[in-house]
Specification:
mainly alpha; 2 domains
Length: 146
C-alpha cells in the first residue's frame, strides 16, 4: 500500500520547484524528460508504485544522494524498501537497454562527428601532420581482465 501523502512527488509537475528537482536528482526537469523520452511505455511497469517518471527519479536520487532504500521509500511514499529495490533494478535495466546505446559505445557516433566535434586542433597538429583523420585514444581503463 502506498502512503497517500507523499513528501516528494515527481508525477505532479507543480509539486517540486526546479531547484528541488535539481537538488534531489542532479537533473533538470528538461534533462529528466529527455531521458524519459527514450524509454518506451512498455519498458517500465506502470502501477500505483511505479510511474516511469517517478521510477527514473528514484534511481537518480539513489545515485545522487546515496541514501538507503528505506529512506527512499519514506521520501517517495512507498510502503517498503523491497519495492524500491525492484523499481531501481527495473529502471536500470530499461536505461541500459534503451538509453545507454544512444550515448555510449562505438555505434552511437560516426567518424565524421568524431572528427568535427571531438578532435582538438592541438591533437590534429601533433598527431596527424595536418591531415584530417579520426583520432582515438584507448587506455584500457574499463577493460576488465582477470
Amino acid at each position: 500500500m502506498v502512503n497517500s501523502n507523499k513528501n516528494v512527488d515527481f508525477d505532479d509537475p507543480l509539486s517540486l520547484s526546479d531547484i528541488e528537482y535539481k537538488n534531489l536528482t542532479g537533473f533538470t526537469r528538461t534533462q529528466h524528460d529527455h531521458v524519459l523520452s527514450y524509454i518506451p511505455a512498455s519498458a517500465l511497469k506502470t502501477s500505483i508504485n511505479r510511474y516511469p517518471r517517478c521510477a527514473i527519479a528514484c534511481l537518480l536520487m539513489k545515485l545522487r544522494l546515496g541514501v538507503s532504500n528505506s529512506v527512499l521509500s519514506s521520501m517517495l511514499g512507498i510502503d517498503n524498501k523491497r519495492k524500491v529495490t525492484d523499481i531501481i533494478h527495473s529502471t536500470s535495466a530499461a536505461l541500459i537497454k534503451y538509453f545507454v546505446p544512444h550515448y555510449l559505445g562505438l555505434a552511437h557516433i560516426n567518424r565524421e562527428e568524431i572528427i568535427k566535434k571531438h578532435t582538438s586542433s592541438i591533437a590534429t597538429r601533433l598527431l596527424t601532420e595536418n591531415r584530417n583523420p579520426c583520432i582515438l585514444v584507448l587506455d584500457g581503463t574499463y577493460l576488465y581482465i582477470q
